[in-house]
């Protein structure tokens, strides 16, 4: 009985993966973290697009440089 249940569970998993199903992942992968850092945001003062890792954040607003920062 337990062997049949185990076989059906494994077969169901293979069918799920075969038709493009994705199993949930725990945590973020390195690619997802890099994507977050490389996201472009617009400077509040001049409108230039800069990556998040290069911005200056003041009062929850993004600025591209000290000249644009109030």
Task: Report the biggest beta sheet as strand number plus sense, adding barrel if it closes.
Answer: 2 strands, antiparallel
User: How many individual domains?
Assistant: 1
Major beta sheet, strand line-up: 1-2
Low-pLDDT parts are: none
Task: Provide the helix percentage.
Answer: 25-40%
* Element string (H = helix, E = strand): HHEEEE
Number of strands: 4
Which structural class should the secondary elements be placed in? alpha+beta
Rg over CA atoms: 23 Å
What multimeric state do the chains show? Answer: single chain
- Kindly state the mean pLDDT as a whole number? 83
Q: Which word captures the global form? A: rod-shaped
Assess the beta-strand content as a share of residues.
15-25%
Distance between the termini: 71 Å
In DSSP terms (H or I, runs of 4 or more residues), the helix count works out at: 2
Short description:
It is built from two helices and four strands; from the N terminus they run ααββββ. It has 70 residues and is α+β, with helices and mostly antiparallel strands.
Task: Please give a structural write-up.
- This protein is an alpha+beta fold and 70 residues long.
- The chain has one domain.
- The protein has two helices and four strands.
- It has helices at residues 2-18, 30-37; strands at 40-42, 49-51, 56-58, 61-63.
- The strands form two sheets. The protein has a two-stranded antiparallel ribbon. A two-stranded antiparallel ribbon has the order 3-4.
- The longest helix has 17 residues, at 2-18.
- The chain is rod-shaped, with a radius of gyration of 23 Å.
């Amino acid at each position: 009985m337990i062997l049949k249940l185990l076989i059906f569970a494994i077969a169901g998993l293979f069918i799920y993966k075969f038709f493009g199903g994705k199993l949930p992942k725990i945590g973020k992968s390195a690619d997802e973290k890099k994507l977050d850092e490389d996201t472009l945001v617009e400077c509040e003062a001049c409108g230039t697009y800069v990556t998040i890792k290069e911005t200056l954040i003041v009062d929850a607003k993004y600025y591209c440089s000290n000249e644009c920062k109030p």
